[in-house]
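Feature request, filed as a ticket because there's no other form

It would be nice if the structure record came with a short human-readable summary line next to the tokens. Right now we just get the raw output. Example of a typical job, pasted below so the devs can see what we mean:
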Amino acid sequence: MDDLTGLLADLVSIASINPMGRALVGPEVLETRLTGYLEDWFGRNGITCRRQPVAPGRDNLFAKFESPGSARTLLFDVHQDTVPTDGMTIDPFRPRIEDGRMWGRGSCDIKGGMAAMLAAVARLCSERPPRAASVVLACTVDEEYTHTGASRLAQTAHGADLAIIAEPTLLDLVHCHKGALRCKIRTRGVACHSSTPDRGVNAIYRMSRVLDALAEYAGILGATVPDPIVGPPSLSVGRIEGGQSVNIVPDWCEIEVDRRLIPGEQPEQSSAAILQFLSDRLGSLEGMEFDQPWISLPALVPRLEKWVEPLKEAVRRGTGHEPRVVGVPYGTDAGPLGATGLPCVVFGPGDIAQAHTQDEWVDLDQVHRAAEAYYQMALTLG
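Raw output as currently delivered:
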């Protein structure tokens, strides 16, 4: 096993599960152990790093290659957390290598990209190429749920001219993506015995009217003029729960709404538009509570102009691959970073179709080529 593959195996074997708002506990939950491993890894490689506290047990970690001969600085961003392991058909934290792939939770999203970025920064610090750009490597927390790590990073004086965000892109360059707004809607009722339902108010029945209205609104959004790169905005209801028992008329019901934003849409306005549509369609919002969004992730607006050709050249040199410049429908840490005006590109090994899956894997050849591409980005953009 070569050094890069061994590094990736270490990263996959260290659980860093994001609880995603659930009451998950244990050593596998949060990024604490992985942050400690990374801190030790930087120390073993003679690279100074520092922590940035974000929440209890959750620290961003920064390392830097200081170039001796360039005024430009690149920000490499990669997140430490993974989604949970429910339903996985493989051992999530026992990395398995077969047919040029590594299986395990996080192998694709995004520990393959993390290993590649770590290798590139270690090489820069070791070889110290004279005309390379300086590189700040930020290992952030909580990307999979509320992007608190990237939001904190966006407020930090990192001094970067361009950000490269590691996500599985099949080694293509992503310059534009959708944002996300997520919120909870709750209906209230009056509980009573189910044998006399007329004595109560059924909160689930109330929610059914809300769901019908949201389905109509989703259809309207899908029919709007699409963004030329990422397509139309969208809305989906992803979770529903309510009631206490089948023989009790439910006095509460709650849904979670996912609203995908296209460039130009503002999260606050989009949230208000949902509430206004419900008010118009239902006539009254009695018995309904609309929580403030718990995710408000801006869309990534294309700002690469002068960077596109140098980036493509770096990827060609590093991978032998002619990259496409594309937009994608999912969101990344580039959302909060790009909202500050910082030009951002998303790039990394792996296929988004493998992220979060029950048998997650990454192509090891792509991981190796990504490491070379990240290194070439520092050389080409210096």
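Something like this underneath would help us a lot:
The longest strand covers residues 179-188.
The chain has two domains: 3-177+299-380, 179-297.
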